[in-house]
Amino acid sequence: MLERSQLPIEALPAWAHLNGIKFHDSIGFEKLANGSGIVTKVDRKEDDHDDNSEIRKNDQEQTNNVEVLISVPSDMVLSLDLVHDFAKSDSYLREVLEALGDFGRTARGAILIFLLCHITYESDTHTKIGVTNPWSEYIKFIPSDIPLPTLWTEVERVLLYGTSLKDAVDFKLSALESEFDRLQDATQSISWCNREWWDEETGRLSFEDWNMVDAMYRSRALDLPGSGHVMVPCVDMANHASGEETVALYETDEDRNAVLQLRLGKKLRPGEEVTITYGDEKGASEMIFSYGFLESSVNSARQLFLALDIPDDDPLKQAKKMICANNTAPGLRLAVEEGKTKWESDFIYWACVNEEDGLSFELMQTHEGPPELKVLWKDEEEIGHVSDKTSTMKAKSLRGILSREPQWEIFHLRAVVLVQQCLQSHLAMLGGEMEQEFANVEHDADGSQTGVRSYIYDMIRQLRIQETELLKRGLEDLSSEIEDLMSSEPVRRYLEQQEQVEEDFS
Ligand SMILES: C[S@@+](CC[C@H](N)C(=O)[O-])C[C@H]1O[C@@H](n2cnc3c(N)ncnc32)[C@H](O)[C@@H]1O
Q1: Can you give the pTM of this predicted structure?
Q2: Ligand 1 center–CA 72 separation, angstroms
Q3: Which of 291, 297, 458, 459 to mutate to test the pocket of ligand 1 (most atoms within 8 A of CB)?
Q4: Cα–ligand 1 centroid distance for 128 (angstroms)
Q5: How many angstroms separate the alpha carbon of residue 35 from the centre of ligand 1?
Q6: Start and end of every SET domain (predicted)?
Q7: How does pLDDT run across 408-425, given as a tens digit for each residue?
Q8: Per the CB 3.0–4.6 Å rule, which of 2, 311, 444, 461 could disulfide with 123?
Q9: Complex-level ipTM
């Protein structure tokens, strides 16, 4: 693994000052219970601006009386464009970006490669490599102990059994492993990469490094208005608080600076933490996945995503999976909206209809290349298309097509029953014996005795409780949805026909 040097948070104001980042005179950084954070200095005196006060009343007036707390010049905001600008004068970075093709042309890909290159430049390299810039130093303020589940121990991850986070983390880890393999394939012929990263004797790059830069990006990237997904130095030191507790928000000003500004109606109180929201609507599982914590004041899972598959005995399973691959996520979302649970999934309808209902796949010979698949509804309407490269859906959703059919209630009932089975199987994994087993798991403060850190254990326990509650509520609401569907005309007629067929046979 690459070694990383760190800088103390106390050195951040000096770094920021050198790099044109301006602060309201009452804003500072401190070590808090949840890592570093932005705080209002205790000795703040109203209207007492000393010479270091860089955002003054004039600037505040220019921004329509919005109190600007931090202002970061656009050329310090780490974006896809800035990485490619840096690459113009840094041939080391440029070689890696070019070798990775399309991946290096996405914001996440470019930023991950940038972070990895700069951590390498600043590590104990065999010869001096790379072109440093202010971000080479800023990376040293980013902590290494990031509590995201992709960085948890294996024993801790096992405790996610039954939660919606389990599949998401497993999937993410295998996606990260594939990316790491691609990085190796693409860069081992570049001599500096081979020497510093891959060579059996001199290379020091490991999967943990890739996992770490992904976690840095995932837990700190902001969707900055007008700039997309970026990393904003200093502003990314803001911790999260939701609802009325959120003190500040981030914006882009007319000069394209990234600014942290006080929310309207909020006041800076000496000693108070300056928080932003990472997304009030995010579910418990997503908060842990992206940021590694749960807010103690939130006691609902809000929403969860569960993985689904087409059953193995479905004769069209492979073809269905091909058409779904680019068009619909293989899962369902369960959420609380306006006091009731709601579920959404287009994928599930692919598991509910087959040839006897009107779904068919037709093989088409092409002039060049392998044959392609046409997806047909009732032999006449082409609803999708699968080639060896991609698959496309012509209609917006299969649900939309089925909802126009006279048997819609029958198709929908099949979907609701599958949702019910899915929720029941997750609930079984969260409760009963599993609950008891979880309660018996040993843990200790830093995990050195048991492999499980107590705060991670408590967080998973919280998630298990909240998701159990949501699943139970979901199942209650599904029972009444099933009751309504069972009494609908098409379902009643269908069941009568089925009974008739059975009687005829007997
Ligand atoms: C954007 S960074 C914020 C700065 C971070 N505290 C640091 O030391 O660099 C996001 C990370 O801060 C921590 N964090 C933010 N808000 C939190 C909160 N309300 N409770 C616990 N941890 C929090 C989590 O570790 C999260 O992944």
Answers
A1: 0.91
A2: 20
A3: 291
A4: 33
A5: 6
A6: 19-279
A7: 999 999 999 999 999 999
A8: 2
A9: 0.99
